[in-house]
Design brief:
The structure is a single chain. The protein has 320 residues and is of the alpha+beta class. The chain has a single domain (2-319), classed as Endonuclease/exonuclease/phosphatase (Deoxyribonuclease I, Chain A). The chain is 23% helix and 29% strand. It has eight helices and 16 strands. It has helices at residues 25-31, 40-54, 57-60, 74-83, 165-186, 205-210, 217-221, 233-236; strands at residues 2-14, 65-71, 91-96, 105-111, 115-123, 134-141, 146-153, 192-197, 213-214, 228-230, 243-245, 248-250, 253-258, 268-270, 276-277, 313-319. The strands form three sheets. Strands 1, 2, 3, 4, 14, 15 and 16 form a seven-stranded mixed sheet that branches. A seven-stranded mixed sheet has the order 5-6-7-8-13-10-9. It has a two-stranded antiparallel sheet with strand order 11-12. Helix 2 crosses helix 4. It is globular. It starts with a strand and ends with a strand.
């Protein structure tokens, strides 16, 4: 039996340097002063801070598949991979250059000695203004089995939870549609893992009514329309959060799995009790609430001892 360590992290505005030649003129105009003072030295410090945490995942061995969002481009991803070199992993990158108005993308870093990205797909969310697509990667394990992973970074709550809810509902419908299509193409035993920053909690209707995620595995197993089990519900009952707003915890970062993980004959299984919100002491503020320590930017609240405004999440799966 093989075990795979899975992780996800919204790394918060991991942009390329201020005057990057890899950035388009249009994006440079959009970002304007947002990246003022974002030098190579500051970017290197942020990457070093992030890598110091990632290298502790999986008992110090690092993750096998690691999903990230709020990364600007492939060169920045490569710098993050380079910072993980002490792990001795054969890390490769699957990256989707998305149409988001701020140029932030979803990507996966994965160990090419354990899985390979066979196919990638970018699924557009139909919204008036540009937003992140869903990024699907069809991984193939060394045993030749298919493992489908879908990265999500749903529209933000910046304009208010309810004013922006319709956009996340559209994203939820998009995820449910492609969950169904994947099963139609590859069979309903296909293991599908959706992960990401959903900008809503497991109980919000974008996830329950539209992405068709459940807290009850039986309802997933016997659903007429393909559903997914949301693995974060047990942590919700503990009052935990991956993101804090005014000291209110919200589980915005989540793992969802299809019935292909849950059947008695499934070749892939979720390791019971393995889902975790990573909150190491250096990553959270001292005090009553475990608020993630932000890195920020020179233009707004720079803290070079910080990391991200989200906590990462990790889990383990097995392949029999």
């Amino acid at each position: 039996m093989k075990t795979f360590s899975i992780a996800w992290w919204n790394v918060e505005n991991l942009f390329d340097v201020e005057n990057s030649p890899a950035r388009s003129d249009k994006l440079s105009r959009t970002l304007k002063g947002e990246l003022k003072g974002w030098t190579d030295a500051i970017l290197s410090r942020k990457i070093a801070n992030l890598a110091s945490v990632i290298r502790q995942f999986n008992g110090g061995a690092g993750p096998d598949i690691f999903g990230v969002c709020e990364v600007e481009n492939q060169p920045v991803l490569q710098r993050l991979v380079d910072a993980l070199a002490p792990l001795g992993r054969n890390y490769l990158i699957a990256h989707d250059d998305m149409s988001d108005s701020r140029g932030i993308d979803v990507a996966f870093i994965y160990d090419g000695d354990k899985v390979l990205a066979e196919d990638t797909f970018s699924h557009t969310i139909q919204k008036r203004t540009a937003t992140r697509e869903l990024f699907q990667v069809n991984f193939r394990t060394t045993s030749g089995r298919l493992l489908v992973v879908v990265g999500n970074h749903w529209p933000a709550r910046m304009s208010g939870v309810y004013d922006s809810e319709a956009y996340r509902i559209i994203a939820g419908e998009t995820l449910a549609y492609f969950n169904s299509r994947i099963e139609e193409i590859h069979g309903d035993d296909t293991p599908i893992l959706a992960m990401g920053d959903f900008n809503d909690e497991p109980s919000n209707r974008s996830l329950t009514d539209h992405a068709l995620s459940e807290r009850n595995r039986t309802r997933v197993l016997y659903a007429n329309t393909p559903k997914m089990l949301n693995l974060m519900w047990p942590l919700m009952s503990q009052g935990m959060g991956t993101y804090y707003y005014h000291n209110e915890p919200s589980i915005l970062d989540q793992f969802l799995v299809s019935g292909g993980f849950l059947k008695s004959k499934s070749k892939f299984k979720v390791v019971d009790g393995s889902v975790e919100i990573v909150q190491r002491p250096e990553m959270i503020e001292a005090g009553r609430y475990p608020v993630p320590v932000r890195f920020g930017r020179p233009a707004s609240g720079l803290n070079q001892n910080g990391f991200s405004d989200h906590s990462p999440i990790t889990m383990s799966i097995t392949e029999s």
